[in-house]
Structure formats: structure tokens, C-alpha cells
Q: What sequence folds into this?
């Protein structure tokens, strides 16, 4: 497959990510009378699912003009858009795998993959993963593996503070992910950070080695 064709497919994927995420998040703000209110949907941002998909959409939006320029010039992508897309991809892959192996078994797969959750928990991650690993060419240094951990680390710190520091009685959050059931917060934190690291390594390795299309 030619570089031009790959860029065109990647560009289409990124446009889909931006639009689909926008409409999914917009649906959270829809009131019963059909109007839209930011205050109604703002609470959804306490979930990593929403945050990761928004990060992925912002990354896709940033990458789009670079891919258009690359198409015009007949060149590949530079490091900056690739790093941005890499970070956007690994966070939604984490969301998908967490739902697949943890939230699905504990909270039910039907709920996890129905309605807008089908996109937010699966399809958005699939599109980002496929576009980054197979259609957006350009080698990235392994040094980017650690910076790509930052979004999850920040969320973990916020989650711990809101759940264990404040709690629902003091304006915080309930442990809706169940990470602190039976006081297993430290174990959950270690598992999630290791999982994120493995995802970062795996996605980068696949991206750097992909030349099969």
C-alpha cells in the first residue's frame, strides 16, 4: 500500500474519532426536553472512559492538519503528531482492556458495550489503534513510553484523592471502579500502572515494526 493511501485512511480514521467522540460526549449533555446543558454531562468526566476518549479525539484533531500537509507534500508524518497520536491511542486501549478484563466481568458486558459505550469502550480504541499502528508511519523512540504514562498517572492521583481522600460524603466520588474493594488500592494501582506500561511498550513496538500493509 502506498504512503498516500495510508495517510488517506489514517486521516479518515482521525476524522471519525473526532466526530464520533464529539457526538458521544454531546449526548451526555442532552436534557429530557431535547436541549443541551453542559452541567448535565460534566459529571461524566470523572470516568477515565470519557477522559481517555476526549484525549484521543484531541490528539486526532491535532494530527489531522499534519496528515493533510503530509498528503500535499507526499511525505510521512514527523515526530510531534506521531507522539500526540501515540498518547491518544494508548489511553483508549487501556480503557478497552480494562473493560474487557475487569469491568465487563464485574459490571456486565452488555452494559459496558451498549449504546454510546460501544464506541467509548471499544470502537474508538479500535480505530485509534488500527490507524496508529498500521497507517501512520514513522519511527518513535522508546523514550516516549514513559511520558505516555502521564495521563493515567494523573487520573490515578485524582481518583485516589476523590475516592479515598475525600469520599462521597465530602464531595468526592464513590469507588465506582472498585479499585479499593477490600482495601486493595495499592494492589490495583500497581496492576494498572504495569498494564499501562505493557500497553505503551506493545503499541509502540507494533507501530515501529508495522510495514505489512
A:
Amino acid at each position: 500500500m502506498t504512503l498516500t493511501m495510508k495517510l488517506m485512511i489514517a486521516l479518515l480514521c482521525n476524522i471519525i474519532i473526532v466526530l464520533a467522540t464529539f457526538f458521544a460526549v454531546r449526548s451526555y449533555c442532552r436534557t429530557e426536553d431535547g436541549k443541551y446543558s453542559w452541567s448535565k454531562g460534566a459529571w461524566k468526566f470523572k470516568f477515565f472512559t470519557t477522559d481517555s476518549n476526549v484525549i484521543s479525539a484531541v490528539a486526532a484533531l491535532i494530527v489531522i492538519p499534519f496528515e493533510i500537509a503530509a498528503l500535499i507534500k507526499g511525505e510521512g508524518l514527523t515526530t510531534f503528531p506521531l507522539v500526540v497520536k501515540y498518547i491518544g491511542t494508548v489511553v483508549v486501549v487501556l480503557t478497552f482492556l480494562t473493560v474487557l478484563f475487569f469491568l465487563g466481568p464485574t459490571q456486565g458486558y452488555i452494559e459496558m458495550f451498549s449504546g454510546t459505550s460501544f464506541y467509548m469502550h471499544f470502537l474508538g480504541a479500535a480505530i485509534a489503534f488500527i490507524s496508529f499502528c498500521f497507517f501512520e508511519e514513522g519511527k518513535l523512540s522508546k523514550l516516549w513510553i514513559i511520558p505516555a504514562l502521564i495521563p493515567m498517572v494523573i487520573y490515578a492521583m485524582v481518583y485516589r484523592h476523590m475516592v479515598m481522600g475525600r469520599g462521597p460524603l465530602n464531595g468526592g466520588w464513590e469507588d465506582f471502579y472498585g479499585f479499593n474493594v477490600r482495601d486493595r488500592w495499592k494492589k490495583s494501582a500497581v496492576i494498572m500502572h504495569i498494564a499501562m506500561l505493557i500497553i505503551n511498550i506493545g503499541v509502540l513496538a507494533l507501530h515501529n515494526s508495522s510495514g505489512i500493509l
In short: Helices lie at 3-28, 38-41, 48-73, 79-107, 109-112, 116-134, 150-166, 185-209.
